[in-house]
Structure formats: structure tokens, C-alpha cells
TrEMBL record:
Keywords recorded for this protein, A-Z: Cytoplasm, Disulfide bond, Electron transport, Redox-active center, Transport
Matches recorded under Gene3D superfamilies: Glutaredoxin
Organism: Devosia litorisediminis
Official protein name in the record: Glutaredoxin
GO function terms (MF aspect): glutathione disulfide oxidoreductase activity
GO cellular component, one term: cytoplasm
Signal peptide limits: none
Task performed by this protein: Has a glutathione-disulfide oxidoreductase activity in the presence of NADPH and glutathione reductase. Reduces low molecular weight disulfides and proteins.
Family: Belongs to the glutaredoxin family.
Transmembrane region(s): none
CDD domains in alphabetical order: GRX_GRXb_1_3_like (cd03418)
Domain Glutaredoxin: 4-63
Alphabetized InterPro entries for the sequence: GLR_AS, Glutaredoxin, Glutaredoxin_subgr, GRX_bact, Thioredoxin-like_sf
Length: 84
């Protein structure tokens, strides 16, 4: 299975949508809450300066936010990444 990391905040609706999509796929993930400024800074460095959440990584590849992951899923590209 793929290693999935998702940077989130507790009240973000897009974070909840991303976690729901991953749960529907049966994918396990590590959630990193970026209310801690040092964790947000680490996220921004990994996500090429993006400040918004969620930021999703699959096997260290930056997928982007929820909209990016949902579009990838619609194109049929998410499942193959999750089963590597």
C-alpha cells in the first residue's frame, strides 16, 4: 500500500472531504495537523509554497489539495497510486 500523508486543520471542510474520499477507497493515511506553525512551515516547504489545506502526498509525491485529488480520481489516476 501507498504511504499517504495529509496536512489538515480541524475545521477545514476540504480536509474532511479529502479524508472521506480516502476512507471510501479504504486507504490508510497519516494526518498532520498544521495548527502548529512549525508543521505548517514544513508543509509549505514540501508543497512548493502552498499555504492552504489540505495538502496531500502519496509516496512523497505532492498530489495537491482536495480538488486536485478529486480530479485525479475522476480521471482514474488515484486508484493506481493508492495500490502501489
Amino acid at each position: 500500500m501507498a504511504t499517504i500523508e495529509i496536512y489538515t486543520t480541524p475545521t477545514c471542510p476540504f480536509c474532511h472531504a479529502a479524508k472521506s474520499l480516502l476512507a471510501e477507497k479504504g486507504a490508510d493515511y497519516t494526518e498532520i495537523n498544521v495548527l502548529d506553525p512549525s508543521l505548517r512551515e514544513a508543509m509549505m516547504q514540501r508543497a512548493h509554497g502552498r499555504r492552504t489545506v489540505p495538502q496531500i502526498f502519496i509516496d512523497d509525491a505532492h498530489i495537491g489539495g482536495y480538488d486536485d485529488m478529486a480530479a485525479l480520481d475522476r480521471r482514474g489516476g488515484l486508484d493506481p497510486l493508492l495500490t502501489r
